[in-house]
Amino acid sequence: MIRQKIVLRFPPHIVEQPTIYHLIKDFDLMVNILRADINPKKEGRLIMELSGDDTAYKQAIEWMKGQGLEVMNLEQQIIWRDDRCTHCGACTVICPTEALYFERPDMIVKFAEDKCIVCELCLRACPARAMETLVENANFG
Amino acid sequence: MKVSRSIADINAKIKAGKAVVFTAEEVIELVADKGAAAAALEVDVVTTGTFGPMCSSGVFLNVGHPQPRIKLNEVYLNGVPAYAGIAAVDLYLGATAIPETDPANRSYPGEFIYGGGHVIEDLVSGKEVRLEASSYGTDCYPLKRIETAIRLDEINEAILYNPRNAYQNYNVAVNRGEKTIYTYMGILKPGMGNANYSSAGQLSPLFNDPLLKTIGLGTRIFLGGGIGYVAWHGTQHNPSAERDERGMPKGPAGTLALTGDLKQMKPEWLRGLSFLGYGATLQVGVGIPIPILNEEIMSYCAVRDEDLVAPVVDYSQAYPQRLSGNLGLVSYAELKSGSISVEGKKIPTASLSSYAKAKEIALTLKDWIEQGEFILTEPSLQLPSVDSGITLKPMPRKDPEEREDR
Ligand code: SF4
Ligand code: SF4
Question: Which residue's CA is the closest to the ligand 2 atom numbered 6?
Fold first, then answer.
């Protein structure tokens, strides 16, 4: 049994294909969509949590790559630069999932990657610009 | 036994490596255990700290003369304009200056990715900074244009001079409006979705010497990771603000003007910041030592977050329109707990000033003093305090054509 959050990128010509339907029907996976958007260039991005049988999961990932989708594990997406973070805490009330939170009573800010849904609100909310993203996200801000 | 120590007594102990130093956080427990009198007998110095965004900051630079000479008129450092209305190659670069090419809030909310604060961080990091300048040319200063690069260690002087730092208490910002607002107090969600504060509370310098009995002109301090000095009282210094029976202000009150040689400061403690929809600024690390001259000073230093309050202010209406009144007072202990209650609503809190880093500053200063590397100074002038009658004045709005002095 596996449970993994992934980010899918769709080139314009596949945006309209029923990918999710195939994941459920052909691979028997449970799909929980966390975020979906399409940019002005008609490229799509889907952030979701998949769970199901290990082998089926691997096959599903291979199948999606074969379809021309870009697949990444979610935790690779948002980076918290500890060296730039001043532990002010401004992000903690902006982050919707408490992935960024204060550890009390020391008032040290921590980043729980597994809770991050890549909403990217912290990128611009952090005055010290300590939150970064690996992927070029200009059109998904 | 009554304690009475002079700064000279304390310095003798520092030089002998025998000074007893506590941070303003550590000393709370000591005073609770032993009482202020006994604690005062034991402790020589209490160190404080704060690390928050401080817009009224900037640096004087003397960039030296090129060959041939120039009288700088319009100057840009990495595209950020600096003020050149002083002598030929002297400049002042302010923390909130932004490049003319920055879209600012024309693409609302603006990102303000790079401004004066970032140039200061780059300079203190030892990075090369592009200098572009133009002039009208004079007989003594013929050059009319220059494009070059400067580095901190190559220029004559770089003096951090911050007209207003270390605010003694500050507002807690909320937004009672219907849409998100972008302020110098951070992003404020509608319907009082969050409350942002900006003070280190019990660790904050001016909360530990509320009546300015020890901090004065010339007080040596930790500034930007190096040594600095109190240069004057800060702009908007308002010692007459309302206070509790112990003298602690219930809202923004005293301020300090601080200065020091940028060349010995550290980028870790001078950070360029970008406030979405507001602008660029500088996060400044400040730590002030409080000499424990007597029991009274000791009892001020024992102040706890529970006993310090700040006013909750609506930044959608009351603040921008400069309407008086607030939505009540909350303590720093409540603010630090993660939520406060305003008008019966539970509101999550966040800070802009870093408590963890304030503590690191207080500990660093403590270490410097214990190692005998940091000697205290005798202030050469007291700063105006509660009895000065100084109050905060607004800008008058009158018809400039009907001036009263004509
Ligand atoms: S807002 Fe930025 S600097 Fe402040 S705690 Fe969050 S990540 Fe760190
Ligand atoms: S991307 Fe969103 S969920 Fe992830 S840390 Fe930033 S604000 Fe939180």
Answer: A122
